[in-house]
Specification:
The chain is an alpha/beta fold and 430 residues long. The protein folds into 2 domains: 128 residues, no CATH class; 230 residues, Rossmann fold (3-Layer(aba) Sandwich). The protein is 43% helix and 16% strand. A hairpin with a 2-residue loop joins strand 6 and strand 7. Helix 5 crosses helix 13. 38% of the residues are buried.
Length: 430
């Protein structure tokens, strides 16, 4: 306890792969326990509300398609639910206060890859809720190398990066992931491109449960701050975005242009790895499930459970990049695709990599995708010509027999990226 950490053994189900991994002897910091306790309290109160709503609607005995109500139960039953909520808040508040006093004195333990993977998954699913409640489990946006945050001053960067290149590579991870997970099966695209193509790699670490536009604007500001203090004159900036990281990068280009940022003048290329440019069907399916559950008063309470998913996840319904696409709207309400058209950034060579779990067949090309992102979405194709991103054929590539996360590790994906980055950019050839 002197080091402020506890060791534990547990199983964690990845929301991306569905694989169950055993985490043994992983340190949990006291700040984590405080955050988890607050989540447990809020979850208990939320579940109590769901059960009470179901209880009240069933007691009214409406028709199957009758109008539901959110009113609390009354009499002794209502008093029982009030007591449950009151005791939960009292106990939870006591735990939170106690841990708040202990954390500054005892939390001197170091992090671990396992702990960070759990936090990344939690932020992907509940990140907006964590941030709104100032929960210590919320991940702040920052740039890192080897899992260590970079202090954005010229002196600190010179110390952290002894031989900085004039070619900077930014890597943005996907939903429910973190910067350490760019290393998969012993391979890291960033480290490999640093060795083979002379880049200095920097990794974005962010709360993937926040709105994509919120992260996009913050990412734009962060790149601007980095290049202002980079220890060497920056000649070339390249971004690689995996999955949601590709959408955050596009959003950053939009907000960087609106703010008049200088870093866009140095941006030469963007590579999108399995980015859902036009959304992902799993989120659209979740939205329809909410609609179906809300039809009957007997199931309306269960619709609240579907609304636990984060703002980042609901943005993936159609691939929303801008604030106005979610502000002043119910993000859980069923609606058509109302996105503003956001083209690829001017003067930047953009490349799209998609994957299909099938072999090279017509069915796989059209429907299957990588298990999470359809090929048409990953390649920016859309039936509406205004929304079609129109990647040149020479700047697209499809990996067959691959899943979503295989894009981080397969050798053929890396070889195509290395070849693309070795070609002169449009600005250099002019």
């Amino acid at each position: 306890m002197k080091e402020g950490k506890i060791h534990w053994t547990s199983k964690v189900l990845s929301p991306i792969t569905g694989e169950c991994a055993m985490i043994e002897n992983s340190p949990i910091l006291l700040s984590d326990i405080r955050g988890y306790s607050r989540l447990a309290v809020e979850a208990t109160i939320g579940l109590t509300n769901v059960v009470e709503t179901m209880h009240h609607n069933i007691a009214r005995a409406p028709g199957i398609l009758g109008a539901p109500t959110q009113e609390p139960t009354k009499g002794i039953t209502g008093l029982v639910y009030q007591i449950i909520r009151g005791v939960t808040r009292l106990v939870g508040g006591g735990i939170d206060v106690a841990l708040a006093q202990l954390v500054p004195q005892l939390s001197h333990g170091t992090s671990s890859a396992e702990r960070e993977a759990v936090l990344a998954a939690l932020n992907g699913v509940l990140g907006d809720h964590l941030a709104a409640g100032e929960n210590p489990l919320a991940i702040p946006m920052r740039l890192r190398r080897d899992g260590q945050p970079l202090e954005l001053t010229r002196k600190a960067l010179a110390a952290a990066i002894p031989r900085p290149s004039r070619k900077v590579l930014m890597l943005a991870h996907g939903l429910c992931m973190n910067d350490l997970q760019w290393r998969r099966k012993g391979h890291d695209h960033g480290a490999a491109l640093a060795a083979d193509a002379g880049f200095t790699q920097v990794y974005l670490h962010y709360n993937s449960g926040l709105h994509i536009s919120t992260n996009g604007r913050a990412f734009a500001d962060l790149i601007e701050a980095l290049l202002e203090v980079w220890p060497a004159p920056v000649e070339e900036l390249v971004i690689i975005g995996h999955s949601m990281g590709g959408l955050v990068s596009r959003s950053a280009c939009h907000y960087g242009k609106a703010a008049g940022h200088n870093w866009l003048r140095r941006l030469r290329k963007i590579i999108f790895l399995g980015a859902p440019h036009h959304g992902a069907p799993l989120e659209r399916g979740g939205n329809w499930l909410n609609v179906i559950l809300s039809v009957s008063p007997y199931t309306v309470a269960l619709a609240h459970l579907g609304k636990i998913r984060s703002a980042g996840i609901t943005d993936l319904r159609y691939g929303s990049l801008l604030d106005e696409e979610w502000k002043y709207r119910d993000r859980f309400a069923h609606s058509k695709d109302r996105r503003r058209v956001v083209p690829l950034p001017d003067g930047v060579q953009c490349y799209a990599v998609g994957a299909s779990i099938s072999r090279a067949s017509a069915l796989g090309k059209r429907f299957l995708g990588d298990g999470l992102v359809p090929l048409s979405s990953a390649l920016g194709r859309h039936a509406d010509p205004r929304r079609n991103l129109s990647f040149p054929e020479s700047q697209q590539w499809i990996g067959y027999g691959m899943k979503h996360l295989d894009l981080l590790a397969r050798r053929e994906v890396y070889e195509h990226m290395k070849q693309w980055l070795s070609c002169p950019s449009w600005r250099e050839s002019r």
